[in-house]
Amino acid sequence: MPNTTPFYLLNVFAESHFGGNPLAVFPAADGLNDETMQLIARQFNLSETVFVKRAARAEAVKQLRIFTPAYEMPFAGHPTVGAAYLLQKLLDLPPHYRLETPAGLVDIAHDGGAVTLALDNGIQTAASDLSREAAAALLGLAAEDVAAAPMWVNTGTWQLLLPLASFEAVARCRVADAAAFMRQTATDFGKPQIYVWALSGDTAKVRLFFGQDGAVLEDPGTGSAAANLGGWLWQQRGGSLALNITQGDELARPNRLLLRVDDNGVVSVGGKVIEVGRGVFMLP
Predict the structure, then answer these.
(1) Beta strands per DSSP E along 124-266
(2) Where's the active site on this chain (predicted)?
(3) Where are the domains of the chain?
């Protein structure tokens, strides 16, 4: 018999069967080393693949290791939400528990069909060398489409956030020069990427563009960036906030996220998860 390990395919932040951000979850990954996990993530070629291992910390139910096709991430939102959804089903977990990531512990809550993660890692920010005008040019926008200078933010992983003036500006973003994007959006804080967003009432329209293997791709739904948006808004404005986030419509993969920040700056991001497949992966 070949050596195999089970996997599940989920759509995270999904309101319909073919919506959301696709995710592969390997719930029994204790026997997999770092090299094998990276190779499996490249095989699936999804935004991220998550591997579940025994927790090193007593406060956590399990440990998550999250890999893109190119590298490991200390934290990412949609893999954490998706893994939590699956683990509750497989292990009959209570509504509230913790998962361990390289970025720290993540509080999980299950309520009314939604899965929510909460981060209390604090909020780090750093200025970007990218000007408003240069950011606009990278995205095919006019300077007046950019509402403020981009800023690096970290509530779990570093990402570059760029506020835009309108939903229409968010929808118009196009990256024509991949080489310029790679040069101008990468720093020691993170990989090449820009998370663009605009607010209208209690709704934020967002998109995330990132560099991978020399190409610029778009993520359908990004929980970690939503958390960073919440942290940035809390730091700028203070007080609690609640936002409905729309993402992925330009990719025909609508994602719907719920963002909450309490008065103390604890950030929560959640949404619905739909299982769409399962199987076994054959190992060499």
Answers:
(1) 124-127, 151-154, 158-163, 193-200, 203-212, 215-219, 241-247, 255-261
(2) 48
(3) 4-120+271-282, 124-265
